[in-house]
Structures are given as structure tokens and as C-alpha cells.
Amino acid sequence: MTVPVLLLRPATRADLPAVLALLADEERVVDPATIRVGAEYERAFAAIEADPRNELLVLVNEGHEGGEGNEDGDGGTVLGCLQATYIPGLGKGGAERALIEAVRIRADRRGGGLGRTLLEQAVARARARGCALVQLTSDKRREDAHRFYERLGFVRSHDGFKLALQSPFTTDEP
Amino acid sequence: MTVPVLLLRPATRADLPAVLALLADEERVVDPATIRVGAEYERAFAAIEADPRNELLVLVNEGHEGGEGNEDGDGGTVLGCLQATYIPGLGKGGAERALIEAVRIRADRRGGGLGRTLLEQAVARARARGCALVQLTSDKRREDAHRFYERLGFVRSHDGFKLALQSPFTTDEP
């Protein structure tokens, strides 16, 4: 008997091709089977997984009752992802703040409320941990995303600034 | 012989009152001697200090030649601070990004280039670590700060969203 269950859980190594597929192209579905997981992504995933203040979270459709079923990569179909970083600090009465990055919903599954589920569950996770604040930035061109975050209760109070650096790691790439 | 030396270094426990004084009031100088360091700030500082991906950095005027001179809290006068968080991730070829928060220059020392020194040294630190990007957000009302970051090369490409949570920690406060 098949009962669809939406679950937000930390990604395992077996989910990495599916997550990289989500990140590779926001506009169309990329088949995870076509993704080559380079050593730099293996390292980055291992760093996230080993860090108690970072979580790569995946929204999965388990598609069956009971059991985690994560052997052989069968942890359900990855429909969305985000990364949460929990930051200790001296503001907010010494409480952590949660930074959310890399929010994605699979291109063919948008418009059905999955984004809301993804964000609401991530916020609930931050709240349960004792975070005083959740923050994120969104490209100024993404007006649709901005309305989405505002409907979820986020306040667009800040401007986001980025400075690209020449990383020594990027010179290793073809 | 007194030679002023500006140094950006990780804060020690002895700097904590001075940093909390900077954070307490952005508009006037607060005497660190008036700051009570509560247990919640002791905990938060210890968490930052123990985390290899977080640094609370202070810009200090050492005011003397040679030596760190940090015994008895004599680590120089704290003129500015910021917190850097180094975030592993699957974008940017697997390189870390640096998030900068809590940027402050002491109210009576602004306008003399200390902010530029603080940010430039923090960016150099992120670059030396291999970060591909430095990012920060700034309140939309702070147009002066925005021009400052743009002069340093930052691009105002994003909007910043915040969602305040009811933290269990804040209920402990008077």
C-alpha cells in the first residue's frame, strides 16, 4: 500500500546526486543519474555532515508506509532542499540565529505548496533548537520568491551584499 | 615608545565587555566597565570560541611596540568588531562562503577609515582561508553603510529577509 509521506530530513551521501541536480539548473529537471559527484562536492558534503551547526535538509516523498528505507539510496524521491546554518552570537540574548541558503524545489513540482512545507518545517526545526531568528537572502530579481517569503511572515528589512573572491579551489576546476 | 598598531584578532574572554559595549549602543560610546556579562553571553562567547567556523574578531589599537600583551586583559583598546561565520556548501565549487555579522566601530572613532580597515582585513582573512564569497546584510535604512560596502566592492544584489522567533532563552531575561 502506497501512502505519500512528505518528510524533511538531513541529506545522506546517497542523496547528493539528487541535491546537486536541484542546484545545477533551477529552470528544468536534471536527472540525478547524469550528475558526476566531484571530489570537491564529496569534501563539502562531508564538511556539512560533520558540522553540528550545519544541516543540508532534503524534502522527500517517501512514497511508502513506515521505515526509513534508506538502503541502496532508497530514501524517497528528493523534491526539494535547503541548507541551514545555526550561528551562535552575542545579539538576541545569546541565542543562535538560523541562516537558510540554497532553497530549491524541483522544477516540475512547483506551485503545489511544497515550498511552504519546506520552509515551515525548516523554521520549526530552528525554533525547536532555540533559535531567536531565521534569516535568508533572495536575489532582487526574484519578486515571486520575495512575495513567497513575505507570505510566510518574513520581513524584507535588509539589503544583501556579496563580494566574490578568487578562490584557490576554483582554479582546480576545468 | 608608543607606536599605535591596528590589529584584527580573535576576541578573548577579556574583550567580551568591550564587545558587548559596542553592541549595546551604536550611537554613543558605552564604558565597558558598566557592562554586566550575563551567563547567556558567557555561553554564547564560549560557543563561538570553540567553533572552528566562527570567529568574533576585534580591531584593537595596541598602543605599544611588540608583544601581544594580553595578560590582565591588556590586549589593547577595542575600536571595532565583527563576527565571521565560514559556511561549507555545495555551491561555488564546494568552497566555503564567509558571512559577516555584527559589524561595529566605536561611535567616537568613525569617519577615519577604521571601518575600511576592519572589513578589508576580514575579507583578507576569508580569502586566505579559501572562501569563494563574502556576504553580509545591512538594514535598508542605513544608506551610508550601503555606500560604504559598495565602495569596498560589495554588490547589492539581494534582499534580506528576517523572521523573528519566540526563543525559549529570551523568557529568562528581565
Keywords, please?
homodimer, 174 residues, alpha+beta, five-stranded mixed sheet, 4 helices, 26% helix, globular, disordered C terminus
- The run of helices and strands of chain A is EHHEEEHEHE
Oligomeric state of shown chains? homodimer
Provide the gyration radius of chain A in Å: 17 Å
Helix content of chain A: 25-40%
- What pair of chains forms the biggest interface? A-B, 67 and 67 residues
Structural class of chain A: alpha+beta
Taking the sheet with the most strands of chain A, its summary is: 5 strands, mixed
Strand arrangement across the biggest beta sheet of chain A: 1-2-3-4-5
As a percent range, the share of strand residues of chain A is 25-35%
Uncertain residue ranges of chain A: 65-73, 170-174
Rounded average pLDDT of chain A = 90
How many β strands of chain A by DSSP? Answer: 6
**Principal-axes shape call of chain A:** globular
First-residue to last-residue Cα separation of chain A:
47 Å
* Count, helices of chain A: 4
